[in-house]
Structures are given as structure tokens and as C-alpha cells.
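Self-study notes.
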Amino acid sequence: MTSRPLPSFVLPVARAVGSRRRRHERERRARWAHAATLGLTGAAGAFALSAGALTVGARVMARLPLVPVGRQRSDATVRAVYRDRVHLDATAETRRPGYLAIRQAGGAVHVRLGAVLGSPTPTSVARVLLAQDTPRPQDRLELGPAGTNGYYWAGDPATAHGLDFEDVVVDSPVGAMPAWQVTPRGEGDGSGTWAVLVHGHGATRGETLRVMPLLSELGLTALAITYRNDAGAAESADRMHHLGADEWEDAEAAIVHALAHGARRVVLVGWSMGGGIALRTSVLSAHRDAIAAVVLDSPAVDWQDILDYHAKALRAPRPMRRLALWMMRSRWGARAVRLREPIALAQMRPAFYGEHLRHRTLLLHAMEDRTVPPGPSAELAGLRPDLVQYVPFPEASHTREWNTDSERYERVLTRFLTDVLGLAVDPDAMALPVRDPASPPQERSSGLRL
């Protein structure tokens, strides 16, 4: 059977249908290609945007601990003032047991407070009023904002404690560093031993005032130093903190100063970042044989742990945290945060200090520390139980061990120094703290933080 030819009108119709199908197919492919292009462009833009945000966030995070801190802000509110007590808004700091001072008007008003008496209202706390260091009638505590002073004492060694001292200058590699050189008045046999005192990040030499009466009683000369980028001290090339990686050179210069002015041996004492500086000095110093002991108060033993702890508290994503650390410790990353050179974070960890430590060390750490977590301190003590005496202080916040239990603090410190230095002192027979926190103010007492 032979096939019949298609009618003449069918072929044009078939061609037209096929043409439309091919056109629709081309349009469909074009739409998909366009959509894919838009999708890829959007994804690339989103990636670039997220990468940019990640970089900016990491840079801010890396710079936060490196920029020198300015003036203290108000962190307390006075609600009522009586002859024997003060009522404050209840906060973690104002509710904490022990001793605390508050100041107003930049230090024109400075009041020392004692134990917590109770809660007059659900949102306030009452504390004993022990003494006022600004006794003029017009310098009385007023209702309203105030700043807490965890150093407790204010002014300088003379206005705070009546101790004789000199304003001296320590010549460090970057320039002149002002220091207080305090002459001991006690009958202890610490003659020839100097204590180099190193304050913490954002703090001042006033942080060291709490231990000065005890050191003086034991016969030790105290040298409370400043370091680069402190107010009144020489600046580093980048005007940034290096978390102790470079500041230890200023503590080393203080050792040189002490040895040049009669010291035969030195005890390094540091708080917070100053503790990290003291620890780093003890393992890198060219005068290690002159270092008799190290005393650390809530020290920065592991900066990577500290930085990661605070980044997690800010809920920073892990990639941002890792990038921030890279910026601080790498040559290329350092440029992004305007550091002149990277920070040797790998050397500021318990493993490094455990390997290189060779001095007897008293390590005191606050268990309620939300600034420098105590874990690395306990780790270092575990690595070197032969050298490190670890003393935890329950209920104390960062560097507030003395404030929480001043008698215990000074007893522990006295026993340690008596043992290490061979002092002819009976720690158990001493009335401690040496300076009663409720002592009347000195004749020229001040509320200033110097």
C-alpha cells in the first residue's frame, strides 16, 4: 500500500509549529540563563557583603583590647547618704562583699565603703560608710551617678598612706616612664629587695596602692611603674597596647633602674595584664638571676583564651573570632588593625610559661573573674606545681581579691614573701591588713586616680 502525499497546506503549518516550539525553547533557555546570572550575581554580592562584614567585625574585635582606655565612666548610682552608710543601686559590683570606694566629680569626692548591710529596697544595697578622703564640707557625696574605685585607695603613696616616696623616671627603650619609688618604713629585713609593681590594662599606678603598706612594713622598696601608652608615659610607635608582648621591656627597664639604685634582688608583682607583663618579664629578662620571686594577681596568662572568651560573650561567629586572632598575630593581619608588628600570642600561653618559668610564683585569682577567666591560671599551676602556689579567692571579681578578704590576702602574701626572701618575720603574729581600711584620711588625702 503506497502512502498518500500530505495536503499542500500541512507543510507550512508544520513548519510554523516547529518554529514556534524552537522559539519557545530558546526563550525558556534564555530565561533560565538570565535567572542563573542574577542568582550568581546575587550570591557573589551576598558573599562579598558577608565577607566584608566579617572583616570589619574581626577588625573591630581585634582592636578593642589594643586601644588604650580613656577616662572612667560612672558605673554606680547613689540613692541615699547617711552618717554611717550609703545606699547604692544594686549591681554585681556594689553587692559584692568586702571593701569598695566610690568617687564623684573626677575624684573631688572619694568615699571608702565597707560591708554590705542589706537591701533597703529590691533594687538597692546599703554599705557601711567607713571614711571620706575628701573632707571639705563642699566635697560631700551627692545623690546621682558615681564611679566605683576597686583600687580602694586614691591619690599617691603619701596622700593615701603617708608613705615617703619619690617621683622618678625609668628609661625604657621607647622613652621615659614615670614611677613612684616608695621608701619602706617597717623594721622588716627586706633591705636590698625591691618590688616592681605593674598595673593592669586600662588601670593606673593607683592599682598598686593596696599592697604598699604591707611591702613597706616588710622592708621592701616599692617601684610602681607606668608602661608605654600610659597617660604621661612615652608612646609606642603605633600607640597601641601589645598585651605585654612588648610592654615587658618597660618592666625590664624598671629592674635595671632598681639594680642601679641599690637593689640586690627584685620581686615582680603584677595585676591583670600587668601580671602577664610580670610573667613574661620573668622568662625573658636578661636579669633573671636578680628576680627572687613573682606575684600575680588575676593575671593574663593566656591571651588567646581571654580574647576568645570575650568574643563568645559578644556572640561573635567562630570565623570572625579566628580572623580577629589572625589579624593580631600575623604580619599581614597586623596592618589591618594598625599594629606596627604582630603580637606573639603563641608565647603568652600556659604551655610556654610552664616550660620557661624558673622563679617561685604566688598566683592569686578571683573565682568570679569575668574579665580574665581563671582557667589558664589553674592550668599553669598544674603544669608547674613545683614553682607555682595557686590561691583562688571565691566571690572576688577581677583583681578584687584584696577587697573581698584583705586579711587573708595580706596573710598569704606575707607568708610567701617571708618564705621566699627569708625574712625574719612571723606572718601569723602580724596584725593584718597593715593599713586598716577604715583608717582616717591622711592630712592631704585625695580622691584622684594618678
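Second protein, same conventions, sequence then structure:
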Amino acid sequence: MYVTDSTFLKVIPYYKQGMRTLKATVFCTLLITSFAYGQEKRGRARDFGVTIGILPTGSNNAITDVAGVKVGHTTINEGQNIRTGVTAIFPHAGNLFQEKVPAAVYVGNGFGKMMGISQIEELGNIETPILLTNTLNAPKVADALIDYMLALPGNEQVRSVNSVVGETNDGGLNDIRGRHVHAEHVQQALATAASGPVTEGNVGAGTGTECLGYKGGIGTASRKLPASKGGYTVGVLVQTNFGGVLDINGAPVGRELQNFYMKDPKGNYKADGSCMIIIATDAPLSARNLKRLAKRSYIAFGNVGSFSSNGSGDYSIAFSTTPQNRIPHNSNTIVRVTEELTNDAMSPLFMAVWEATEEAILNSMFMAQDSQGVAGNTLKALPIQKTIEILKKYNALHHDRLPKAEQQ
């Protein structure tokens, strides 16, 4: 069986179209999890008082808060051994090959199989949706993405497509050698991509992933700059599958829970993995400043306790959706006039991407659920109530509330 976001929304019989708000989505997610898994209720980090940074979120606290960005998932849970999927991110709703967007890639650690990186580096743009999946399925997913692009109206004469596919290795829970993501799964994720709330945790490309000793998955978050700093939005989506020692707002959660790298003398803790970080913004940025933006996301990677192990493939892809800066495939002029923020104006965006990436990583863990997969392997989700107790101990909750002295 495989499911998409649209399938998720049909689980609750009384889920009305008019209730498609973030609050309703969170409620339904908690309800479904409680009934289906018989474990403690899950929720996003902010639902439990975990706030990162100082900037406000967008309306959905998701990458889709950047206007035009859409996300789709296909989740594949079959039998005892298949726990995988694919996630699609669209920078805009048009034909991306004909209207490319400025983009850049930052490689934190290159032990990965990301596809399409060299052309992004060379030309500074992307021309397809970004797809995420598992390591051994990356070539198959790229092939299906090429089919999708060639079939779009207007692309009848296209003879070269730079498909962009990121991956992490979900072989701990998934029969990864079976390469179970097929063309129909890719097409389904692309066809069902939508704006608005984004499902998180054990979905799409995050179905079989592991993060910081617990179940990882898909997470997302966003930040909105004040009008005085441009009013721009930065949205982030992550596929988390890496190791380390979990920290939340400075609280040593992994250490307190006695679940961290190098503690286990038998070497059962998995430090290797990978992380894909997808960054969208409506700020008018060149490929050069998009790369600078992508670099700053890596600050969050260390903040949550990762050290980028030898076998971790960690990539940040950043793109700008500013319509006037799109790059036409065919142009009648040899000069392209664009808008670009000054270097000095980048600092607020750097803060925004750090905050959104860190919260997205935590959301991927807070929303994940216990999972059993190939060879009977079991991966527990982050124990939320124990985590909250630790965060209270270290005064790491509700950082969005001013101290009493400042409120007066």
C-alpha cells in the first residue's frame, strides 16, 4: 500500500474542505497517530512549547509559506520490509524547464548520491522539481522525473533535462536493495503536490529514515522577516537521516535519554546517514547569495547535535521564487535584467534560514512514529513526554515568552 497527502486528508470522514488549516491538520495528525499506533500523541515541536529563535513563522510554518511552492509525498508501506517513498518540491506551478529559477547547492559532507548538482553549480539554476527518495532509488526516480518533464506541454523539443534528486539511505527499516520506488510513485507525488500544510514524520522520502538515535523523517518550518527587513519569507523542508547527540535549545536531550553516538559499546548506534535540506525564499537572490544562504542552514545541523559523520551525505539546495528573476529557456535578448538584494541585506535571511532549518529538523522527529521494518528492525520515535521533562529541567521551553521583568 502507498499513500499520498490527498489520501491522508480522507482518513477523517468529517474533515471538511473548509477546515484545511494548520490547526485542523495538526489535530487530525495527532488523532490518527493516537488510534493507529497506540503510543503517546505526536505533534510539532511548537505544540509542546519548543520554539527556536526569535522570528515569526509563516501561516503554516512550512516551506509552502513561500508563495507558489508545492509539496507532494508518496509513502510506501508494504508488508514487513518496505518502508520508503518519494517527496516532490515544486518552486512554482509553471513549467520549470521553460521558467527556471535561480538556485545553489552547498555540500556539508559529500558522502551522497545527489543528482543534478554539477549543472546547478555551473549555471546557477534548477529546471525541474526537486525530488527526494532513498539512495539506491535515486537513478530510477531521476528517470521518472525526466519522463514527467519531457511530457509537459511546451517541452516537445527538449533534448536535455537536468533532473534534481536528493537521497538518504533508509536501509535500516527498508529493503533498500529491492528499489521499490517506481515511476508510478514518482508520478503520484508530482501529481498530488499542493500548497498549504505539509504532512511530516514517516511520510514520503522520510518513511524509513533515522535521526539522532530516533525515528527521523520529513520536517518543515518557515520564517517571516519584518517589513523593515523586506518582509521576505524563508521556508525549509528536510529529510533527516543522521546521527549525533540530540540537543534542543541547548538542552542535552540525547545525553539525558542515554541514546547517543559512541555510548553503545556494541556499536549499535548508527551515526552515518545523511540529510537533505531544501530552502525556498521569495527574496530576489542570485545564485551566489543563494549559496551563502544554503551555507547558513548548516548552523542548525550542528545546533541539534550532528557532527556530519564520515558516511553522512549532507546537502542544502536553495532557490528563489521571485517571478522577475526567473530564467526563460528561450529568450529574445542576450541581456537579462534582474533584481538582487545587497549583501548587507542578507543577514536577516541568514537568521531566518538557521531558525527554520533547526525547527524543521525537530519537527521531523516530533512528528515521527515508531516503525518496524526489514528483518524485524524497530526504530523508536523520540519520547515526547520524557523530552519535555528534560527541556523543563534546562529551561528550554517557551523561549518565545518574555521574562516577567521584560513584560512589565
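Instructor comment on the second fold: The CA atoms of residues 44 and 366 lie 6 Å apart.
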